[in-house]
Structures are given as structure tokens and as C-alpha cells.
Amino acid sequence: MIQRLIDTYREAYGGLPPKVWLISLVLLVARAGTMVIPFLSLYFTKELGFSPAQIGWLLGGYGIGGIIAGLLGGYLTQRFGAIPTQALSLALATVGFLLLSQVQSFASALACLFYLSVTAESMRPASVTATVEFCDHPDQHAKALAVNRLAINLGLTVGPAVGGGLASIDFSLLFYVNAGGELAALICLLMVFGLQLRPISPVTSSSLTTARSPWRDGRFLVFAVLTILASIVFFQIMATFPLYLAEFYQMQEWHIGLLFAVNTVLIVLFELVLVNYVKRFALLRVVAWGQFLSCVGFGVLPLAVGTSLGIGFTYVLFTVVVWTIGEMLAMPLGAAYVAQRSTEHNRGAYMGLFVTAFSVAAVIGPLGGMWVYQWNPHAVWYGSLILGSLVFVAFLKMAEAERKNGERGAGTAADDEADNALTGGDSDSVDR
Questions:
Q1: How far apart are CA 214 and CA 338, in angstroms?
Q2: pTM score, two decimals?
């Protein structure tokens, strides 16, 4: 039994090229360094005396910067390559954290946060693209992207934990350590990969002619919209989720923190194993079930309201497990679908738009969720069930269309006229 468990994890973690692990190590260092973000609202309130309304505008500006960063990072990745784009992002973000430590006025804070978001978040599509391009075979995409997410989650776990200690000593330490983390990631990147001024796969004039823009790929745009809708539910973790737990389940901050820790621990321990198992199935079907479980996990939240704290905590813990399983299915397999939908010549643009979809949801989700919450707190979660069901049906319909039309290469201009999956015509497919 123990040996079988060891073999399962060895298979899940093995078989990837060393460069995949190295690029994820760079991402881990960078994300561990961005420890200031969770404490910005406290810093702006306690140190600079900003009002809640001003903080809302500041965080909104950061979110809008993230939307631009996804598109910009995708463009730069496609034009100059994944490694140079990451290097530029890390270098400019280092400056951004140092500038943020010096802001005094609302206007300067808004401008600096916007700059920091655009520069720091533009690394994301480049990192995902590099992870895919370093794979030896498309079958490795899902597992490699799970490693990429593992690095992010570890970094976002270590960073805030260290950041909390630094903030209790002196808030300014957060900015300097953040800048040092970005600089350390930049040094690691350059030491391992050098500064490759050309894309990993050189682009020829013929490939530029046939490479299709993601904005002309109708089915991918539908996929991106469905991702936004499902992610609007997921990003309630940033707004209404902790508020609902405190108000209706009488949970303290440490209860809520423990639930978030469970989410991270499950991802670290089981995501690679789960992805290694489900990667054999049709990607869109797995994504459909993942997004559905994620929405259901949030949607059933009101069902134990009114119970004791012990029962309520146990029930909410169960819902966290449900939406975490959904997250582990939908996130890496969704990125793997995008990787297979694109080609080596337009993957940066595809990944940039895919990352942008999450940034859009990260802005709309908290704002929309809070608006509905003010009207009826329970409606947020019942609405999540409805939205998740609609997204689930739409993803399954896309998967069925691809299955009927058979597998074909995607991401080139030659596919444009045939891309009629949702209208019953021929279509591209990456169904496995």
C-alpha cells in the first residue's frame, strides 16, 4: 500500500524536463516575494490614513492594471520570447515595489499600484508559455502547468506568512523585501536561462502569416468568456466569502485563515496526482466538471447556516474541499486546453488573453459579489449555483462539438473558416 502510494507520487512528479522545474522555481521566488499585496489595505489605512472608498479605488486600479498586463505580457511573449518578457517584468517590478514604499498621496499610490500591477503581472503569460514550450510532448502540458500552479501556491503561502511578521515590525520592510524577492527571481532567471532575445521557437515570415490571433478564434473566445463567468464565482474568496463566514457562521479570522490553508495544502499535496490521472480524458470535459464543482462548492454554502460553530465549520470545510477539487481540475487543464488550441507561434497571445480572463473576473467578481451581497447575502451563492450550471452545460456542449468534428490542428488562419463549433459546422478540436 505504501509502495503504491510512493509510486503514484513518483509518477505524478516525474517525467518532466528539468527546465520546467527551473522556470517554476523562478516563479516560486517571484511569488514568495510579492508578500505586500495582502497587506495593502492595512498599510493604506494605518500608515497613510486612506478611507475605505479610496482603498477600493486603489485595489480596483491594481485589478485594471492586471487586465492590461495579461494582454501586454502575451504580446511581448509572442514578439520577443518568454524569457526576455519575464526578465523585463521582474526588473520593472523591483523598481515598482521600491516606488510604492515612498508614496504619500492618494494620486501617487494609485499611479504606483497601477504601474506595479502592469509590470509584475505581465510575467504570468510569459511563465505559462515558457512552461509549455519547455515540454518535450503535448501530453506533458497538463502536468507541467500543474507544477506552475504549485509554484504559485507555495509562493503565495510563504509570502504572506513572512509578510505578516515583517508588517508587525515595520511596514516598510515589506516593500524592500518584495523588491529583493523580484530581484532574486530575476537573477535566478538570468543565471539559468540567460537573456534569450529571440522566442524559444524562432518565428518565420510564413509562420506569422498562418498564425491566428486568439481574437479571431471564435471558440477560444467562448472558452474565455465561460472562464470569466466561472471565475467570477471563484473570486468571491476575495470579498463575500470571508464576510459571509464571519456574519452567518460566526467564524473568527483564524477559522477563515485555516480554511484557506486547507485549500493550499490540498493543492500542494494532491493537484499533480489528480492532474496526472485525469489528463487522459477530454480536456474540455474535465474543465467542465472542474468549474461545476468549483461553483457548487460555493453555491451550497448557505445550507448549514444556523448550526453550531463546530458543525458549521465542518460543513464549510467540506465545501472548501469541493471547490478546491474543482479548482485543481479546471485551472491546469484549462491552461492545457489553451496550450493545445494554440501553436508555438501564437501561444504567447493565447496565454495572454487566457490570463486576462482571470484578471477581468478578479475585478468583476468582488465588485459584483459585494453589490449582490448588499441586496441579499444568500443570493450570491444561489446565483453561483445557477451560473455554474449554465457554464457546465456550455462547456459540455463545446466538448461534444469537438468530439463530433474530430481532432485537428488549431491556431492557424487556415482554421478560421471552419471554426463553427457552436453553429454545427466543422471545427478545430483538441479533444483527447
A1: 10
A2: 0.79
